[in-house]
Amino acid sequence: VVNxxxxxxxTGMFTYDPGFTSTASCESKITxxxxxxxxxxxxxxxxxxxxxHGDFLETCYLLLYGELPTKAQKEDFDYRVTHHTMxxxxxxxxxxxxxxxxxxxxxxxxxxxxxxAFYHDSTDISDPHQRMVASLRMIAKMPTIAAMAYKYHVGxxxxxxxxxxxxxxxxxxxxxxVPCEEYKVNPVLARAMExxxxxxxxxxxxxxxxxxxxxxxxxxxxxxxIAAGIACLWGPAHGGANEAALNMLDEIGSVxxxxxxxxxxxxxxxxxRLMGFGHRVYKNYDPRAKIMQKTCHEVLSELGIKDDPQxxxxxxxxxxxxxxxxxxxxxxxxxxxxxxxxxxxxxGFPTTMFTVLxxxxxxxxxxxxxxxxxxxxxxxxxxPRQLYTGATQRDYVPIAKR
Length: 402
Ligand code: ACO
Prior knowledge:
Blueprint: E1 31-34, E2 39-42, E3 45-46, H1 47-53, H2 56-65, H3 71-82, H4 91-96, H5 104-118, H6 128-154, H7 167-176, H8 187-200, H9 207-217, H10 222-233, H11 241-252, H12 258-266, H13 287-302, H14 309-322, H15 325-329, H16 337-347, H17 354-374
Antiparallel strand pairs: 1-2, 2-3
Helix pairs in contact: 1-8, 2-17, 5-6, 5-10, 6-7, 6-17, 7-8, 8-13, 8-17, 9-10, 9-17, 10-17, 11-16, 13-16
């Protein structure tokens, strides 16, 4: 009989770190977070400045290539992304294979995974040109695919991209234009959408990005890796939290019921958590949440929404939680998902689309991180170890004798 513990004899020392709370899986030059101070930098630039002054494609360029583009570089990049916004016509039929009531994230997992079947001329990861084409294709086509998922979800015909529009405006157009009437994208809402995309563009080694890196470490093609990231993002502890946060505000229903839900969040026998609160890295206010709160007010004001019951509940919930001993002691602050749901709802999206929008924007971060990994000479296949706690060696028992 083999003594199982002796199996570890020759492996040297390794750490046991569930949830990777203190294990760095890679070196990266893309995004820096100081969770205690609430700082988020992309390639050294504060998120507040990028969200205030830049547009989403500029942030994409910065994440992918490490520097802000010159005017000529920006024009060239915009042109090349715009050139790829259409999806293969056969993809339309792929959508219609899903049940009408399918969750749009389920559709996204399938359709994005299928991109490697439609664009197999950009799946050779050893070729830098193919890697670049795959990156541009994904950034360009994700809004088209996300809008198609939305249109299929609500039973409307697909709307083709209108390439004279900016990235976010084009997305709003593909989502909300209908053949029977005139639709003009509101520039204030397009700017808000653009800012929401910038806020979600990258966030270093979060669960979905680590999933993309792990999938990519085996040499899998980039479309398959991004599909893996989308699947991971769907969970309510990650990108699904924006949908869950809005559902929670609905469940709370009125400001006077907030204390009841705060008590539930503190009760260790109740699985309920305040959705949109807390973060693995931020032990301070998530800087994205502040910008999102401001964007939320701007969108509601542009739409003439004076009283939004969900916003009232959210702001009062935040106020109470931030003065509550439990939340102070555990350093639980609103994260980006807390105000994004209210904003996206005001923009006209159903809750089921919230995580799709997150996936759309995070695609550039996933690609930048994937590209950095592929180009890193130290890159190895990701292969975590385990602490085996199962049965010791034993002999097979024929079924008649069990
Ligand atoms: N409500 C109530 N209590 C909470 C919350 C919350 N939202 N978040 C954490 N806690 C408590 C935990 O119960 C735990 O208490 P304990 O020490 O007494 O056991 C303590 O705070 C630490 O929580 P962990 O779950 O260990 O922290 P972790 O870093 O693993 O989790 C996470 C972070 C998943 C974000 C967590 O805060 C959470 O579930 N939040 C709600 C979901 C959410 O908003 N997710 C979005 C994250 S941001 C993003 O993906 C874009």
